[in-house]
Specification:
This protein has 5 helices and 5 strands. By secondary structure, it is an alpha+beta fold.
Length: about 140
């Protein structure tokens, strides 16, 4: 059964993989390099990873065309949006929130590799109402 604890434990594991990639590569590379390396690290940790997932746009239950593309979907539960930028702008959080709402996923992680410390400077976790509906344990 999927619980808030399960989702949070999964997110913790994902962040650990991101820290491992950052430890080996450091800041300053292209987002695409971090993405490839993080995919490898996540798969090595036994997680299911889907990359560059197309998210169709529905309005009133109708696909109105157009689509967005999210970076990573982990275990079909957590969306990971990657960045390699000097400053995390509000638009990046809005981007992740859009993906979360359009896919009805409970949690997303915005991870910026262009920082000294991912946990302190490069991580923005977001949860949705879907998360609040899940049992805690």
């Amino acid at each position: 059964m999927i619980t808030q604890k399960y989702i949070n434990d999964l997110a913790y594991k994902i962040v650990g993989c991101a820290i491992e990639v950052h430890k080996h590569l450091g800041p300053g590379l292209l987002e695409s390099v971090y993405e490839l390396c993080l995919i490898e690290e996540l798969k090595s940790a036994g997680l299911q990873v889907t990359s560059q997932v197309v998210v169709p746009i529905f309005y009133k239950e109708k696909n109105i065309g157009g689509s967005l593309k999210l970076d990573l979907l982990i275990n079909n539960l957590i969306i990971v949006e990657l960045k390699s930028v000097e400053i995390i702008l509000p638009v990046f959080k809005a981007q992740l929130l859009s993906y979360l709402k359009l896919t009805n996923k409970p949690k997303g992680l915005l991870i910026n590799f262009h920082c000294e410390n991912i946990v302190h400077d490069g991580l923005v976790p977001l949860v949705t109402e879907e998360f609040s509906y899940l049992p805690r344990d």
